[in-house]
Write a structure and sequence with these properties.
It contains twelve helices and 18 strands. It has helices at 45-53, 75-85, 101-111, 117-130, 146-157, 176-191, 203-206, 223-228, 234-241, 297-302, 325-334, 336-359; strands at residues 3-14, 17-29, 34-38, 60-65, 68-69, 86-89, 164-168, 195-199, 211-216, 219-220, 245-248, 253-255, 263-269, 272-277, 283-289, 294-295, 309-312, 318-324. The strands form four sheets. A six-stranded mixed β-sheet has the order 6-7-8-3-9-10, with helices on both faces. Strand 9 (211-216) and strand 10 form a beta hairpin. The longest helix is centred in the C-terminal third of the chain and has 24 residues, at 336-359. The radius of gyration is 25 Å and the shape is elongated. The protein starts with a strand and ends with a helix. The mean pLDDT is 88.
Length: 362
């Protein structure tokens, strides 16, 4: 594991008011993952990455990064540890204006006493060449564009070859073309084995990573809700997360064929079996659905009665987010991508149902 947060909370006090920026956060990010953290302004996403980098400390809970409990490190220890293990990239670059791009990249090596002076210069040149800036190595930050400054900041973050790269809104102040170039650099880093954590407000970029963590009001939206409906906007995902989760004992019938539709469900724990009834009273399993998949959508979307029975598998309880008819209607009417994706899922399921019927003639 690269980064593990356990029951992490963070509160701030302003005057007599206490504000909870993070509430009992549990997150694990594995080595080599490329993860996006998204959420609207004020949701707590920047506070979350500040916990991971040790820039800020939790009010409660524990944080382990690369097997080190960073919540126990003193200030001086933290700075040295961070310099060797984490490369940080900020939205507004934070290059030192009185140093050249080359000197900015060399600075973390100097601070952490990494490499010899000769090696530092050679490594800085290699990194600037890697991000396409070698010809600008001796220029000051003010003499290059915003996109070039951000690429220099990426080179600086890589100076000590840290295993983890954390970027807070790295493309937020860039135009779309430059943002795509910078994002491609992150993709390359992830392919080469770095763990990359990127805070972004850009949903399109967030969909290109290995996993998206959605933060809403200081809490993590269930990853399986995000997995089920990856095209929804952050506000819609947060609304779904606020829905009541229901628990079904193993073997419980959740939906019965022929009933009127009332809810759709997203599985967040366990598995369900999709069953088809035979005229002779027997039934057969059409398919099994797991965490991050949904069911109950066909009758709600197309009208009519339930076409299959859905039962919690007999191995473990099933937990699911229950979506009422009205909210379901909002989802499919306000997100064309989600509606089209759902239609594709339904088509596959109906085709699978037809194949199974042919295998089990009445």
């Amino acid at each position: 594991m690269s980064i593990v947060l356990q029951e992490v909370g963070k509160t701030f006090q302003t005057g007599g008011t206490i504000f909870s920026a993070l509430k009992s956060i549990n997150v694990t990010i594995n080595m080599g993952e490329f993860v996006a953290i998204v959420g609207k302004s004020g949701s707590g996403k920047s506070t979350l990455v500040n916990m991971m980098t040790g820039i800020d400390t939790p009010t409660s809970g524990r944080i382990r990064v690369m097997e080190t409990d960073i919540s126990q490190l003193r200030s001086g220890e933290m700075a040295k540890w961070r310099g060797r293990n984490i490369g940080i990239i900020f939205q507004f670059f934070q290059l030192i204006p009185t140093l050249t791009l080359m000197e900015n990249v060399m600075l973390p090596m100097d601070f952490c006493s990494m490499y010899t002076p000769k090696e530092r210069k050679r490594r800085a040149e290699e990194l600037l060449d890697q991000v396409g800036l070698l010809e600008h190595a001796h220029k000051f930050p003010s003499l290059v564009s915003g996109g070039q400054q951000q690429r220099a900041a990426i080179a600086r973050a890589l100076a000590n070859d840290p295993p983890i790269i954390i970027a807070d809104e790295p493309t937020g102040s860039l135009d779309s073309k430059t943002a795509d170039t910078v994002f491609s650099l992150f993709e390359k880093l992830a392919r080469n084995g770095k763990t990359v954590v990127m805070v972004t407000h850009d949903n399109d970029l967030a969909r290109r990573v290995d996993r998206t963590i959605v933060v809403a009001d200081g809490e993590i939206v269930n990853q399986y809700v995000v997995q089920a409906f990856p095209f929804l906007e952050i506000e819609q995902l947060a609304r779904l997360e606020s829905n009541k989760k229901v628990l079904f004992a193993p073997g419980t019938v959740i939906i019965r064929e022929g009933d009127e539709p009332d809810y759709a469900y997203i599985i967040t724990r366990g598995e369900v079996e999709i069953l088809m009834n035979q005229p002779n009273g027997s039934e057969f399993v059409v398919s099994t659905l797991k965490k991050g998949q949904y069911f109950g959508e066909i009758a709600l979307l197309r009208g009519g009665k339930r076409t299959t029975t859905v039962r919690a598998s007999g191995r473990e309880p099933v937990e699911a987010v229950r979506i009422g008819r009205e909210m379901f209607g909002d989802i499919v009417s306000n997100s064309q991508d989600t509606r089209e994706d759902m239609q594709r899922v339904i088509q596959r399921r109906l085709e699978e149902l037809g194949q199974k019927k042919a295998e089990y003639p009445s």
